[in-house]
Amino acid sequence: MIREIADRLEKVYGQGEGRAIASLIAQEATGLNVGKIIMKGLKLSDVPKAVEMTERALTSEPIQHIIGWTMFCGNKIKCDRRALVPRPETEVMTINIMEDENAEGLEVIDIGTGSGCIATALANRWRVTAMEKSEEALSLARENFLANNVDVRLVKDDILSPTQDYGQFDIIVSNPPYIRPSEKATMEDNVLRYEPEIALFVTEKEPLVFYKAIAAFGSKHLKNGGRFYVEINRDLGEATAEVFRSLGYIDVEVKRDIFGNNRVVSGKWTRRY
User: Fold this and answer.
1) In this predicted structure, what is the pLDDT of residue 272?
2) Fewer CB within a 10 Å sphere, N or C end of the chain?
3) CA 262, 196, 64: angle at the middle one, nearest 5?
4) β-strands 152-156, 127-132: how paired?
5) How far, in Å, are 70, 103, 203, 227 from residue 224 at the CA level?
């Protein structure tokens, strides 16, 4: 069965990725692990659900949408068109935050929480507020917080013009929109067709608009010595870092992701007296 699915998917995904996706489809469709699927000698035609999922995969629909979930920092995160699929780079950033910040009782805000994957992971350790302006993403995040049994304060608000009341935070984290329209030509079809544009794109004229808003928000709502972590456009690393430096943040640095690309900017807020 897995071989049948992989053979069909190879022309779209290549051999390695095709087999990995085939394994996920087979296990999700049958509720069995790979060993039991092989032992039973199941064929693709034996499992109509697997046939339907394979057909969806052939249209380049993200596998996370097809099976309905992905793992992120040990948490099962529901995925659909309401928010971005959590990326490995975002997971690495989240893990780095948990490794860098080892104090107890920290107050954290996740700006533009989307699926709620970052907030879910951090809420296992700290008190987390999650900000999101999209009604669709808010509903998905709420489902993920409930499913993972984490207590997160979920706030409907827009970082570009925040209206809600906020206290002081030890950490700001955000994976905001940062892709310019001119970059669409290099993007995968499964992203363009199945993920919300509102979570992906900025204008060509103001590609750093969200970072300017986050930096301004942090200047009011980060505690003295509080830190920020933001995922970035790999081509705008130093420009993004300069946004924060220009407002007085210190120790601002650009960090690379697992693929060697500029992916995270972090730094510290120190109040001026």
Assistant:
1) 67
2) C
3) 80
4) parallel
5) 36, 15, 33, 9
Q: Residue 170 to residues 16, 167, 186, 224, 226: CA-CA distances in angstroms?
A: 42, 10, 37, 8, 5
**CA 201/CA 203 separation, integer angstroms:** 7
CA distances from 49 to 11, 18, 25 (A): 21, 18, 9
Coil vs helix vs strand at 252: strand
**pLDDT on residue 97:** 97
Closest CA to 143 of 88, 93, 69, 62: 69
* 231 in Cβ contact with 175 (< 8 Å): yes
Q: What average pLDDT does the chain have?
A: 96
Is 202 strand, coil or helix? coil
Task: Please spell the DSSP secondary structure of 124-182, one letter per residue.
Answer: TTSEEEEEE--HHHHHHHHHHHHHTT--EEEEE--TTS--S----EEEEEE----B-GG
CA–CA distance, 179 with 8 (Å, rounded to integer):
32
Give mean pLDDT, residues 51-59: 97
Supply the pLDDT for residue 273.
Answer: 54
Dist. CA 18–CA 258, nearest whole Å: 22
Q: Report the alpha-carbon distance of residue 66 to residue 27 in Å, rounded.
A: 12
Q: Is the pTM of this model over 0.85?
A: yes
Q: Which H or E element spans position 109?
A: strand 107-111
CA distance readout (Å), 143 to 68, 114, 173: 13, 12, 21
Residue showing tokens 């709620």: 116
Alpha-carbon gap, residue 156 to 33, rounded angstroms: 40
